[in-house]
Amino acid sequence: MPLSTVATGREDVTSPWPVREERRVVSVLFADIVGSTALTERLDPEDVRALQRAYFDTVAGVLRHWDGVVEKYVGDAVMALFGARRSDGLDAYRAVRAALEIQRALDRRPMPGGVRLRVRVGVATGEAVVDLAAAHDGGHGAASGAVTTTAARLQEYAPAGGVVVCAATHRATADLVDQRALAPVALAGKALPVDVWRVTAPARPRRPRHEGPLVGRRRELATAQDQLVRAAREHRPRWVSLVGPDGIGRSRLLHELRHALREVDGVAVRWCVTRCPPYPQGSLGPVAELVRDLAGVRDSDPPAVVHRRLAALVDGLVAPARATATVTALAALLAAPEGTAPATGAPAACRQVLLALAARQPVVVAVDDLDRAGPELDRFLRALFAAATLRGLPLAVVATHRPQLADPQPVPDDRLCRVALAPLGAVDTGRLLRRLLGRAGRPAALAGRLLPLVGGMPGYAGAYVAASGDGEPGLPEAVRRMASARLDLLDDARRAVLTAGAALGVDFTAPAVDRLLGWAPGRAAALLRRLATADTLLRCDRHGRYEIVDPALRRTAYDRLPRAVRAEFGRRAEQWRATASGRVAPTRSSTAAPRLATPRPAHAEPAPALAAEQVAVLAPAAALDGGQGHHAARTRPDVIASGPRSTVDGAGRWSMPPAPSTRNRIRDEGTRIADGLRRDLGWGPRSGGGHEDPVVPILPRLAAGPRRHGRASDTGAGHDRPLANAPDGRAHRPSSPPAPTGRGSAAVVLALRHAAAERAGQTPPRGGPPLRRVA
């Protein structure tokens, strides 16, 4: 049975996406005319009709410009949805910008009969069930949820010609629009007063604050810095792209690069930095920010100060005969409303200033979030790069953007460097979390709970730390917005495959996805390979098992499914597991939703016996053996709870000491398991003596035994060395391996048993085996 029938009771044959409805976080705009009743009482019905047409045409045009969907017209009111079918992570911002634009458009457009219309607008953000097929203009009933009512109630408290927003919308647009807090209001149906804000205007782009440490990016920083140094020394312009998804730390790396490269061979480097805001108000806005950065002009400077600083900038760079015209053009660019300017030659004037400056010293033009820029900025940068190449100037362009933006075509390959930012490893993520928690005054022990949720994304780490509390870590709003945008970049087929994988759990196979979606066998295989290679959203091990790289993406995809679809996925998943394991599938229909393999904070609350990456190594090792004869898979308590468990030699070979009853077993069984772990964990193959091997540094900690009281031993090959870069950020050199405790060993045993049970498709155990305590 198609899943669209499961969710809604009717089959949708027009869309390849298997569900017709989704639970989505949307922004709802509700606009209503002030005094419409009195206006219709004094006007002729034909005049009212003409006025309504002009009003609705104006509002609908603005909503279409900002990618909003008109859900319904209610009398004189208009309700629109943002993010109903596709989200770009800026749905609330687009709704607020549309609300402000509606007010300006109505003020500019003359209405029939000379009537001046004033409207109130409310914007609310929250979860709703969206009918995807009805998410178009005039799709009545496309969204259901309390957020639609909240938006209608909010507009009642907006002043005439004003825009008010709820708390969720305020948080999503805090740095993008100017807002002023109003007194809390009592909305009908709400138990407590609701905080509201009035939005006045879009905010000028602000440079992001980077207070956290830069962790785990030394290689990327060195690569980009080397390209800039070569451009300065060889007088051959270079284009450096810092590429990665939102939250990966592109802006943070650019900030560090600017402070790391201040001079080359004793000559100062001149940095000119601009940032492209989302949906820029003017196509030349980033160019104006470049001029402000060059001249040191502030937003609050009066025109006389601006003119004086621009004149000081061009002095000596431009011929005296052209200096006045250049200053006038640049001043017009800075004074133009909304970052636009008439055809005064402002881009050409800015380009000439940069080229003249590059003739004196190395110049780096940096553009943050280039994927948001308009075509005018793209043409400006290409012309600048071409002119600098022709003249042989020491100039470089550094741009940060998402992977979807193609590299500039006219740039030769030997002078184009694309620095791809990958998620941080477990050790670096742990260090970053511990430092952020320390800055926030939170316990460092929370790093263990947040580590599997962050997924190596520095932006996620900051959001989780800011939202961390004493309970179960939820998905922060900022992280959900970024994950929703990445999910909606996929087409329907790939989104269906990824969502099915999220419902199956931590890892899954192509046949399981086919079974869950009701597809013909083999259809999901090609889509999974594309998600793993081109989209880099999945990892695949040598057994053909896939895993979603981003935990937030998995969580967001699963949360969008309606309850009925979750239950149907759970039933089909159980049937697949029963078939794959040779068991008889249950005849009764399961109503339980498929369990997502989320971290178990209950086991992390008592300090775990092993670091997170040690458990990551041990758990797949137990599952690989499958419990067939080797004591590592059976997790014997006398093996885990007594002394060193493994040894590592200089070549990186790992072996586990057998139990007394298994002395005849092969000693290097652990080597076979460790070699198999590298691909399962998404790590590279072992090379050489093991110094670059990510698995080898972890294995000695397994040999040293569990941690106790926040310490860990890193003993291997007969000598002690400090444990550095642990997930909790600590580094210790204990004099001897600490004795494992019963509690710590129980945590390890239970983790191993859970991993083995999940791999075998069995019910995870509720407790661990009895352990022998060690004094």
Describe the structure.
By secondary structure, the chain is α+β, with helices and mostly antiparallel strands. The protein contains 29 helices and 22 strands. The strands form six sheets. Strands 1, 2, 3, 4, 5, 6, 7 and 8 form an eight-stranded mixed beta sheet that branches. A hairpin with a 2-residue loop joins strand 2 (69-74) and strand 3. The longest helix is centred in the first third of the chain and has 21 residues, at 45-65. The protein is globular. The two termini are 60 Å apart. The model is unreliable at 4-16, 586-674, 677-692, 699-749 and 767-775 (pLDDT under 50).
Query: What gyration radius follows from the Cα positions, in whole Å?
Result: 30 Å
SS element count, helices: 29
Low-pLDDT segments: 4-16, 586-674, 677-692, 699-749, 767-775
- SS class: alpha+beta
In which range does the helix fraction lie? 40-55%
Residue-averaged pLDDT, rounded? 77
Strand content: 5-15%
Q: Sum up the overall morphology in one term.
A: globular
Number of strands: 22
Main β-sheet, in a few words? 8 strands, mixed
Separation, N- and C-terminal Cα atoms: 60 Å
